[in-house]
Every structure is written in C-alpha cells, then in structure tokens.
C-alpha cells in the first residue's frame, strides 16, 4: 500500500512547516486528491493515523477533498466533468477528443496550526 509512504511524506513535510512556524501544533492538514491520482482515500486516511503515531501530529486530522475528473473537449471547446473514470469521453457530445485538465492532483492545500 503506497498510501502509507505518501502519508509519511506528508507528515514529515507538515512537521517541518510547523517547526518553521515556531513549533506550532498542527491540528489538521487539508489535501486535494484527484480521482486519477492513484491514491485511495480510505487507505490514506487509515495510513494517516499510523504515520502520525508517535509524532507531533499524533492528534491531527487529515481532511481530504476529492477532485473529480475534468477534461477539455476540443470539439465543444469547454471543460467537462466526467461522471465515471470508465467513460473517458465528453459527456455532452460523446467526443473522445479530450484532454485531462483536473483529476490528477495530490496537493497539500492548507495546514491548520495554533
């Protein structure tokens, strides 16, 4: 499960940032995960608790915003949100002439610190 190594990297980054902020306590970390990122939300949430154990983030929360897959349809000349990862075509005109514009994210958005 690669989510554990992802969680451990994020914990390390958050600890470093908290230290830069004068030893602030991290209450929560906000993350955006795209549906094409290859990261399973539930596995990452479970891994978060394991990765935080025994660190300054031991009682912190991981808040995940899931980002849907959006493509730019070259025929419609518009961004379209896909209903399913299995239907990779424009939901309006059914064209397969699309380019992914959102959905691959794995991004730390914010740290809640005190």
Total beta strands: 6
- Portion of residues in beta strands equals 25-35%
CATH class of the domain at 3-68 and 103-113: Alpha Beta
Mean of all residue-level pLDDT scores: 94
CATH architecture of the domain at 3-68 and 103-113: 2-Layer Sandwich
Task: Report the total helices.
Answer: 2
Strand order of the largest sheet: 2-1-6
* Biggest sheet statistics: 3 strands, mixed
CATH topology annotation of the domain at 3-68 and 103-113:
hypothetical protein PF0899 fold
Query: What is the CA-based Rg, rounded?
Result: 17 Å
Q: What is the string of SSEs from the N terminus onward?
A: HEHEEEEE
Uncertain stretches: none
Q: What is the straight-line distance between the termini? A: 32 Å
How would you describe the shape? elongated
Q: Helix/strand-derived class?
A: alpha+beta
Helix percent reads 25-40%
């Amino acid at each position: 499960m690669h989510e554990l190594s992802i969680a451990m990297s994020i914990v390390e980054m958050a600890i470093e940032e908290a230290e830069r902020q004068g030893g602030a306590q991290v209450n929560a970390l906000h993350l955006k995960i795209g549906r094409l990122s290859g990261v399973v939300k539930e596995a990452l949430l479970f891994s978060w608790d394991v990765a935080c154990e025994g660190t300054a983030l031991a009682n912190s929360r991981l808040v995940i915003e899931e980002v849907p897959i959006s493509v730019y349809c070259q025929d419609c000349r518009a961004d379209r949100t896909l209903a399913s990862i299995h239907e990779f075509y424009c939901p309006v005109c059914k064209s397969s002439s699309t380019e992914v514009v959102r959905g691959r994210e794995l991004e730390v958005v914010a740290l809640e610190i005190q």
